[in-house]
Amino acid sequence: MDMGMLIDNEKESRKRLFSKLGITEESLKEDVEHLKEWMQKQPHLPAMRHVNVDLWLENQLIMSKNSLEKAKNSIERYCSIRSVCPEWFSGSELINDVFRLTYDVLSLSYLPGLTPRLHKVCIARLEDTDSEKFNFDIIWKRCLMAMEYFLLKGQDFTGFHIIFDFTGLKLSHLARFQVSSLRMMSYSMKAYPVSFTAVNFVNHPNFVDKFVAVLKPFISAKLHSRITCVKDISELKELLGPDVQLPSDYGGEGLSQCEYNEIMKNKLLSIKDYILECDKLRCDDSKRLTKDVTNTTDSGLPGSFRKLCLD
Predict the structure, then answer these.
(1) Sheet strands side by side (includes 159-165)
(2) Which of 92, 103, 131, 237 could link 172 by a cystine bridge, Cβ 3.0 to 4.6 Å?
(3) What pTM value is reported for the model?
(4) Contact 260, 110 (CB under 8 A)
């Protein structure tokens, strides 16, 4: 296995994914055509001239687990959220800050191989424990950029299995999570229909319950129920199965955590201009055909987004 490979698009991997989601090549083409026709009938949606629309819609459908309605909702929110949360879609300066300020503070590795349930494993770990350098807004933008990567390049997985290594976490880090940022995190994640299928905490401090308490108001009950503390790496290996290539510093046969972190950094650098084009997308609410969608809530979101939370 190529240790730097994020997505396995080989025929057998695609066949396995399609079998899991109940997709065929024919049904996928038909559903893509359906979504294209639907988008053409939504005059408020922006043109997607910077992307291969057919492939992008394929990836939307796969990320939506073969649900047309979920894909439609995701496309709507993908475009609308850029007006709702402009701070995270503000252009080159923010993206430059991602590369300049986050990679030495927090490593994020997207590991080769999948769990038995076809989940992609991601490990997040502090590399610099100075809480003053921890900027959640910029780190979350980096996560959104990763979602853009998988929407562009494709995916061989049905959801993310997230591992938080809390080595070096301090109570002062929790003060860096602002309510406004967590609220926008909740909103913005609905622009991408990816599922977080499991969340594991390793090397966790005795105040980990306080970290969960900070997040709880902004995540769904379903996601909250998927959070578990793992006592050691042996237990983690059992959870992930034999096909996931853990980093060498976690007792695996893969590259190091920091090497995987650097691989993803280079992947995102390679599509920086593409991400900038994505960030420019906006809906034209004056052209909406369904007028009740424009009713706003106290949160400033359209009425159809009244209950937005991570799932």
Answers:
(1) 106-110, 119-126, 159-165, 196-202, 227-229
(2) 131
(3) 0.88
(4) yes
